[in-house]
UniProtKB/TrEMBL annotation:
The chain crosses the membrane at residues 43-64, 97-114, 121-138, 150-173, 185-202. Pfam families: HupE_UreJ. It comes from the Bacteria. This is HupE/UreJ family protein. Keywords: Membrane, Transmembrane, Transmembrane helix.
Amino acid sequence: MSFSQSFRPRHRISAPILTIALWPLAAWAHVSAGEAGGLLSGLSHPVSGLDHVVAMIAVGLWGAQLGMPALWILPVAFPMMMAFGGLLGLLGTPLPGVEVGIAASAVVLGALVLGRVRLPLAAAVALVGVFAVFHGHAHGTELQAGQNAILYSLGFVIATGLLHGVGIAVGLIQRWSLGRQALRGAGALVMAAGVYFLWGAVA
């Protein structure tokens, strides 16, 4: 038997075997792309709109003003309730006035920072929790087809926590008298931005 005769059968057999062996890898690559897309979309979505950014930073600013334990409870309560709102959005559950609720969150939170308003902890948690549902619902309804919903949700929760962290870090300037005034000025800017967004939402 010549070399060419012995090689041909093996070559014919190896092609389907190679296809079968590589099929799971091709399928896994497709899943990984969807998962990566979902996570990256979730991470980028909260920072893609200024209305989300200013409200989430304001939560951190207000938490820094209120001090412990609100300093860490508010940035935990907001993403948790936002995840709930995101689930409602993913399921297609309607929520009236989402854009108005998002804009109103910036107005109210900015006003609270500007006025250095100290609410009872339960009331503060309830307030940010209600606003978080609107933000989460907006994120949930914008999941793109083929992306992993769980990783998308994880992404926007992580990004939200980071924005809260920015607000907390900036809020540390309240240790100084000039810093407290600057913090109130930041609250005024957030409130002004919220009024602008609210006008756009109702106009």
